[in-house]
Design a protein that fits this description.
This protein has one domain. The chain is built from 4 helices and 2 strands. Helix 1 crosses helix 4. The relative contact order is 0.19. Keywords: Hydrolase.
Length: 86
């Protein structure tokens, strides 16, 4: 049973940008949100959340449901991350 979850939002533990982009774009295909590419990821990360969801055509009220779906999609990428050794 999983006891702990580590969130690595800045790529310190794992180089996860490509996995995140692929997972989001998979979700975007299914729900008609705007896809993202690697070159715009840093710009999106700097935006306030309301501006970010607006640019991605993502209705903020769907966030709780989409987070669950996104977690499943990310799980499908397990084993594809390159970890940063420290």
């Amino acid at each position: 049973m999983l006891k702990y979850v580590i969130f690595d939002f800045d790529g310190t533990l794992a180089n996860s940008k490509d996995v995140f982009i692929s997972a989001w774009n998979s979700l975007a295909d299914k729900h008609n949100y705007r896809k993202i590419n690697r070159s715009e990821l840093d710009t999106l990360r700097r935006l306030p959340i309301l501006e970010r969801v607006k640019r991605l055509d993502f209705p903020i009220f769907k966030a709780p449901l989409i987070i669950q779906i996104f977690t499943v999609i990310i799980g499908n990428f397990r084993g594809t991350l390159s970890y940063i050794l420290v």
